[in-house]
Design brief:
The chain is α/β, with parallel strands linked by helices and 410 residues long. It is built from 13 helices and 17 strands. It binds 1,4-dihydronicotinamide adenine dinucleotide (NAI) and 2-oxo-3-(phosphonooxy)propanoic acid.
């Protein structure tokens, strides 16, 4: 790894993957960053390693996997932008250990997911997916069987965060009763009621919608035993992550008609781009709405995300601020006009700050401002000095034991 970095904007390369919205490139260019390489798909293996090998910043969405192995081959990588909510596709700890903050867009696509799920609740309770499929095959089944109003039905939300809460509020407007289950204690909006256990929720809802992140605890959170606890004739919606539902268990429940229907937007294995085929045992069920991981894919959400995440990357690049980084000490910094700013990222071991101050004092470097924040693995010190002292100061910082990397912002 290169411990010292200090580059002009025109030498910094941004790699944007997975068809990130052009608003991102526009925002970069407006700020003077012109080296931007874009790809519409999620590269893997040698292609990914080649593309990331000389990138200073990488932007991705939910499909590109940034593993420790990939990060180890990205020596110049300074920061990562997830142009989405989920950050499970990045090895966050490995990135932090390499001094790389990871940013995401925690809100911009939440309304889009909520609206899609709301539509799916109505479609599933009216049994529309099956009726639609029959008509596409030139059939005609005009019947009220298995068709219900949503009014008065109970929606169970698992994961009552930014998306889950919005769905709850919207569903109440349609006259649904809302219950939710979350591992954290959450403020219930409207008339929503918290459930004490997952089982309580499973047993009490007509439609269940999943809005948890991908973690070890949510892996196969809905498998055969949980589906068995759901009401006969109820529906399941998953627009969270593919790993949360055991697909074979869902298939079995659809086959046995224990569930009336399902809507699935995310899958354990998803195609890497639009030219790859989609394979799933769910394709044969007319009563399942299948969507290609487009919960957050609306014009509004994508344009907003492009600007939001690029703004965070630019701010880190220009000013050193790491506000809202998901794996890194968060520091919100003022402007440093008239001074040079040094960023020092180190392993979080005792005594680093003391050593820095001792070295600066011995070298006669005056510190105009200093900021420190630490997380489990990493310490982040930001120091403003006079421009005349900046090169010596950077030399001093680079030689301090425990340094992961340091850089100057002019
Ligand atoms: N289909 C799509 O295109 C999209 C999918 N997503 C997925 O939706 C997920 C949720 O998004 P947000 O609501 O914005 O996240 P959030 O972080 O605001 O909410 C997640 C909630 O789940 C809860 N939770 C975590 N582990 C849990 C567990 N084991 N059991 C019960 N609750 C648990 C958390 O306490 C939190 O309240 C994201 O992590 C992402 O994976 C997000 C956007 C678009
Ligand atoms: O925001 C998220 O976590 C999503 O799942 C959306 O992913 P995408 O940007 O559509 O690949």
């Amino acid at each position: 790894m290169q411990p010292r970095l200090s580059l002009d904007k025109d030498k910094l390369k941004f790699l944007l993957l997975e068809g990130i919205h052009p608003s991102a490139v526009e925002a970069l260019k407006q700020d003077g960053y012109h080296q931007v390489e874009t790809h519409t798909h999620a590269p893997i293996g040698a292609e990914l390693i080649k593309a990331i090998g000389n990138a200073h910043f990488v932007g991705l969405r939910s499909r590109t996997r940034l593993t420790e192995e990939v990060l180890s081959q990205a020596p110049k990588l300074t920061a990562i932008g997830c142009f989405c909510i989920g950050t499970n596709q990045v090895d966050l700890r490995a990135a932090a250990r390499r001094g790389i903050p990871v940013f995401n867009a925690p809100f911009s696509n939440t309304r889009s997911v909520a609206e899609l799920v709301l539509g799916e609740i109505i479609m599933l309770l009216r049994n529309i997916p099956e009726k639609n499929a029959i008509l596409h095959r030139e059939g005609w089944v005009k019947s009220a069987s298995n068709s219900y109003e949503v009014r008065g039905k109970t929606l169970g939300i698992i994961g009552y965060g930014h998306i889950g809460t919005q769905i709850g509020v919207l569903a109440e407007q349609l006259g649904m009763a809302v219950i939710f289950y979350d591992i954290e204690n959450k403020l219930a909006l409207g008339n929503a009621r918290p459930m004490h256990s997952l089982v309580d929720l499973l047993e009490s809802a007509d439609v269940i919608s999943l809005h948890v992140p991908e973690t070890s605890a949510t892996q196969n959170m809905i498998a055969a035993p949980q589906i068995a606890q759901m009401r006969r004739g109820s529906c399941l919606i998953n627009a969270s992550r593919g790993t949360v539902v055991d697909i074979q268990a869902l298939v079995d429940a659809l086959e046995s008609h224990h569930l009336q229907g399902a809507a699935v937007d995310v899958f354990p294995a998803e195609p890497k781009g639009n030219d790859e085929p989609f394979k799933s045992p769910l394709v044969r069920f007319d009563n399942v709405i299948l969507t290609p991981h487009i919960g957050g894919s609306t014009a509004e959400a994508q344009a907003n995300i492009g600007v939001e995440v690029v703004t965070k990357l630019i701010r880190y690049s220009n000013n050193g601020s790491t506000t809202s980084a998901v794996n890194f000490p968060e520091v919100s910094l003022p402007e440093h006009s008239g001074k040079c700013r040094l960023l020092h990222i180190h392993r979080n071991v005792p005594g680093v700050l003391a050593r820095i101050n001792e070295r600066f004092s011995q070298a006669g470097i005056n510190i105009a401002a200093q900021y420190l924040q630490t997380s489990v693995d990493v310490g982040y010190v930001v120091i403003d000095v006079d421009a005349s002292a900046s090169e010596i100061a950077l030399d001093q910082l680079a030689s301090i034991e425990g340094t992961i990397r340091c850089r100057i912002l002019y």
